[in-house]
Amino acid sequence: MGLSPKTSEKIAFSLLILATLTVTGFVLIILAYIILNGYGAISIEFLTQMPNRMMTAGGIYPAIVGTIALITGSMLVALPVGIMAAIYLNEYAGESRTTWLIEMAINNLAGTPSVVFGLFGLALFVKYFGFGPSILSASLTLALLILPVIIRATEEALLTVPNEYRESSLALGVSKWQTIRYAVLPAAIPGVVTGSVLSIGRVAGETAPILFTGAVYFLPRMPDSIYSQFMALPYHLFVLSTAGTNVSETRPIQYGTALVLLIIVLGLNLVAVLIRRHYRNKLKI
Amino acid sequence: MFSRNSKEKGIESVLFVISTLTVAILFLICLFLFRDGLLLFKETSLLDFLTGKFWYPTSVNEQFGLVPLFLGSLLVTVGAILFSVPLGVASAIYISEIAHPKVADFLKPFIEILAGVPSVVYGFFGLVVLVPLMQETFNLPTGQTALTGSIMLGIMALPTIVTISEDAISSVPGTLRQGSLALGATRWQTIYKVIIPAAISGISAAVMLGVGRAIGETMVVLMVTGNAAIIPSFPGGFLDPVRTMTATIALEMGEVPQGSDHFHALFAVGSVLFIITFLVNLVADSIKKKYRFKVS
């Protein structure tokens, strides 16, 4: 190249800035587009009413309730299991074949496509356990999907707790479990909360795992047990925009649903980032 | 004392059993996918499935050929990677090496938040904005093409690639940087001759994880690629509709009678998808291990 090092540096840096601007530009365009088109559709009625006139009017209340049910169900299962697994891995497990196997399993669960979880949920929960297409089957499927996220987040949180916490507690004659319970876990809580909040966002936004495990396009009445089928925000958006009875007439409702979903998920992610930032340097001794 | 000890032992055992649940889940996923998937091979031979050129699940002479679906996934993924790797790695370099720390502190969470946008929202955006745009720009019968899918998938994979590459680049020891600058190299020469080679395995791991994410993604491709199960040509096929493995499962599973050949064929496709992402993760993992060793 015939360029002087200074000139080529200038060109390279400009290209790097351009790339970063492009990436952030994508984000801003997508967010702005959904917000500008969706915000006109959102009202109290939109959030609290049943759909009406073949989905072309009314609200998305049942889809919001369904999504909340899925979040509750999957977190009830994944949170305790994930936290306990992470405690074992970080506080007890030594280097062994079993530990390696567990770590490998977690990595692979994290990388398994969500539609494969959907197939698995259909085969195991819907068919084999006979839960049918239901809130229960879908929540359990989603719980498996977020389990690796919660384990990883909790492990990371436990890692940042300085060893002095453990040593000083053990030196006082406190047992190992009590040390973990009263000295280590409380210090790791912010990290665990961050991970949980991110997983809630994930549950709220996932579509593929609930396609065959119980999500429906329309419910004549609200679900009344964990064995009921349900509506959910992401599935609602998917069906309305691709296969709905009248794709163009339901457009405003699609934008509104997309915005509600985006607000829930991005709001949760923002909370997670803020919690992490707030507690980042609090544990240093 | 004895009872305290046995209580401690008890707790440890419970925690151990719970952590082995992860292995059990992975095992059950294999078992249930492969069990239903393998039933297909009572009717169709494995070779016919892997090399079959036609996916006609509902015709009288039903045919379950994986090739069009596999190539569909491959085409869309390759396009997404070609588009998102240069952009993602460049942004990662900018954020960790050039940007003012305050700017970086703002950009990093901003891009992480992007990782949380649900895929169905990307799919929806692609459907209402990018699909009509593609149709007009290239004067096509439909804007639902492989390229549309690649672009949306690329945007989706960006946060993964940026965040992990950024981690790899910022974990390059400062001494390497200072040594190079002290020898009179410019910052850019330092970046591309010292920092990038030192971080290359971390960056490759980021790319592999991006690939894994793109192959396994369902909703975006389902909504914007048109879902025509034909073998795509290359590179002209980028402007034709394609059908990926994930989209096929999502599209057809709702309507097949349980226990039919078609049902088993979809589980067989799911098994292939699972094996592919399993291998991709394994590669990413081993690259990452190598790179950890190098830096420490």
Structure write-up:
Chain A is built from 10 helices and 2 strands. Chain A has 285 residues and is an all-alpha fold. Chain A has one domain (69-284): MetI-like fold (Orthogonal Bundle), CATH 1.10.3720.10. A two-stranded antiparallel sheet of chain A has the order 1-2. In chain A, β1 (51-52) and β2 (57-58) form a beta hairpin. Chain A is globular and about 70 Å long. Chain A starts with a helix and ends in a 6-residue tail after the last helix. By secondary structure, chain B is mainly alpha-helical. Chain B has one domain (47-295): MetI-like fold (Orthogonal Bundle). Chain B has 11 helices and 2 strands. In chain B, strands 1-2 form a two-stranded antiparallel ribbon. In chain B, a hairpin with a 6-residue loop joins β1 (55-56) and β2. The longest helix of chain B is centred in the first third of the chain and has 37 residues, at 2-38. Chain B starts with a helix and ends with a helix. The model of chain B has no long low-confidence stretch (mean pLDDT 89). Chains A and B meet through α1, α3, α4, α5 and α6 of A and α1, α3, α4, α5 and α6 of B.
Keywords, separated by commas or semicolons:
heterodimer; A: 285 residues; mainly alpha; MetI-like fold; two-stranded antiparallel ribbon; 2 strands; 72% helix; globular; B: 296 residues
Which CATH-level-2 architecture of chain B? Orthogonal Bundle
Estimate the global geometry of chain A from the Cα principal axes: globular
Summed over residues and divided by their number, the pLDDT of chain B gives a mean of: 89
* Known CATH architecture of chain A: Orthogonal Bundle
| Fraction in beta strands of chain B | under 5%
